[in-house]
Amino acid sequence: MSVGAVESVPAGMKILIADDHALLRRGLRQILAEGMPEATFDEARDGDELMAKLQAQPSDVVLLDISMPGKNGLELLQELREKHPSSTVLVLSVHSEKQYAVRALKAGAAGYLTKDVAPEALLDAVHKVVAGGRYVSASLAELLATEIASSDDRPVHELLSNREDAIFRRLAAGQSVGQIAKTMDLSVKTVSTYRARVLAKMKMKTNAELMRYAVDQKLVD
Fold it and tell me: How far, in Å, CA of 43 to CA of 68, rounded?
């Protein structure tokens, strides 16, 4: 189904779609190709393939899923921005704006969308970041305004580093230290150290407390 006519993009603009689900990559590519016939496309199924493809040939826009297997998505985003600053990153995530959007913008993303977004909004977001702007939905703008207004009274999890936050969320989802170590390609000792830091910063003693906090803050789906 056509998404309708949209304004043109620079000829030869390259868009790299990074997501671990092949069906979703194909769908995103079709939507973007219909609205941006001048653009060229490539795909990556994980962070390693994404970085290798960018090293071989830079892309103008990276449409990034921050929940792929392997390296934590926010850390991957930071690495991408450091090593390939000419690539504009638009995050498209299954996680709600409340969970990750502010962190993603702070890490260098030019915009944040959830995967239930309408095709027209996706195209609008890509056009906006290509033009040098940022894409922020009305609800995300409200979140940002709230954060600025309450900067001295932020939820305790927002004090965590990106690595600590990634481990906190996995612990809150019920993953063991061993499972997290395997997923994030870290040693069990390293994950245990980060777990201790998370508990100390959040002034908690058990994983169960982390899980209750995540549920109360609506940080888990």
Answer: 13
